Here is the input.
Amino acid sequence: MIEIAGTPIGDAHETYIVFEAGPTHNGLDSAKRLIRSAAEAGAHAIKFQIIDADRLIADPTVTIDYGILKKDGTTETVTEPLIAPLQRRMMTADEWREAKAEADALGLAFFATVCFPEEVDFVQELGAHSIKIASADVDQLGLIEYAAKTGLCIQLDTGNASLGEIEKAVDCIKATGNLNIIIHHCPTGYPARIDGVNLSILSTLKSMFDVPVAFSDHSTGWEMDIAAVVLGANLIEKTITEDRTTPSIEHVMSMEPHEAAAFVEAVRNVRPALGQKRRVLSEAEVIARSKVRRSAFARRAMAAGEKIELEDVDFRRPGTGITYSEFVILNEKPLSTDLSEGDALTVSHF
Here is the structure.
């Protein structure tokens, strides 16, 4: 179990919910609207991506393929230079400060993906509550070590990473003395293919590393998020957008504000519904059960001293008296008192 901004994350606690707005805002105003939507929906945190696209992308001709949702409900795959969607999510330092202030005012934790040490310094200055390392940077051990030394919770995305690479990254974080680690399973694709979601890896990550695990959802809808919680995910990250038909990367698989509250409630309901591995009945369940179960009632009037047998009783509702199993022990025992037809049998009759 770890704690972020006073909220514990672990198997004994409710599912932690983060809305990702990094790829779906188009500037400060939309970023603030998405922050407000996340807060109104009841999420714990909002996440952004603090990226200097021109520094990160050395070859601006490299392209990326992704799906967009059209107004008629169909999807289309488009291709554009990778640098373009990264440039659309850039903001100035002052704009980031204003976005963080908005999150603070609404009680949302603020998470950020970073790519360079200077960005680590900046999010620490901002007062971010957690630093995320992108899947593509799981092998950037220098960056990971630098981020870990802040002492902030490090969230490690692991899409397309081997277990060996994840192990090296986790060891790198722990070597700094920072044990505040969350490992994300993040399927690739925008959106991810259903046959590539591979939720079963969540239990592998949890057993291997003994830290909270998370699911960064790249699928449409929220079925995969429900399944992830069932399989042990402690944190769910879902992208939020103002309009899924926005013709840019990640909007197609995102949650819109009008459905965000229902999503949060559905995900939060899963963990308490899982209950315990042992069958432990509550007092309310025992009371409800007794109303529909059956107990022994006299089929005829009988006098004290008569031996009562199975054919002398009916098993009728409610089940508040002698059960069938108990009656088997009492079968052919003499009565100590008279019985009238329809009386419920009790141990005082023997």
